[in-house]
Amino acid sequence: MRFPRISRALQWGALLATSAWLAGCVTAPTKDYSAYRAAKPASILVLPPVNDAPEVQASASVLSQATLPLAEAGYYVMPVTLVSETFRQNGLEIAGDIHEVPTPKLKEIFGADAALYIRVTKYGTTYQVIQSATVVSVEARLVDLRTGEQLWDGRASASNQEGGNNSGGGLIGMLVTALVNQIINSATDAAHPMAGVATNRMLAVGTPNGLLYGPRSPQYGKN
Fold first, then answer.
1. How far from 30 is each of 43, 205, 207, 209, 210, CA to CA, in Å?
2. Number of structural domains the chain divides into
3. For position 142, which CATH number holds?
4. Residue 40 domain-assigned?
5. Does the keyword Acetylation apply (predicted)?
6. Residue 168: per-residue pLDDT
7. CA 2 – CA 94 distance, rounded (Å)
8. Residue-level pLDDT at 137
9. I need a surface site. Which of 8, 14, 28, 115 has the fewest CB within 10 A?
10. Which residue stretches of the chain have pLDDT < 70?
11. Is residue 195 part of a domain?
């Protein structure tokens, strides 16, 4: 009399297993690159990043490490010093205000094909019970300055705790180590190298959902 119940349980088990297998087969949606490919940007204007983190150096840290990956990807990047001085002479020194400048005006002033709008959402070292973690998170949009259309967007994070940090000395030892590390990291801006890692991850080319190669790269048009 119990066989029907067993059979029903087996059916439910098979259904759940099939559902789990199908869920594992579902791939993450890929970006639509049609507008990006049609625009064919060759030059990029990197705007000063908007900083949502409390550390005032976050914007400059990320900006200083954003141009190299773009240049290596095959794009001409407008010189950061020239861009900053141009904005300053026009009374624009706050990143948020610069991001509000209409795209036709940016095109008129700099002549670049596209602009990269970066935002820093996390930057710095925080104390987390038994460890101190230095984390940087960034996000960006690539916008066609000729049309104002968004061509691409991306985000990435980096932390000095990514590989794990097992230390001896028991709980008290870990608490002391975490506190000391936080003081050292905050005093030396340990987030700066993490900003480089996060920025390079976000602006990587040849990766799923990453940037496309620029016309100066031998790989142009192959991704």
1. 25, 14, 11, 6, 10
2. 1
3. 3.40.50.10610
4. yes
5. no
6. 46
7. 74
8. 97
9. 28
10. 1-29, 127-131, 163-189
11. yes
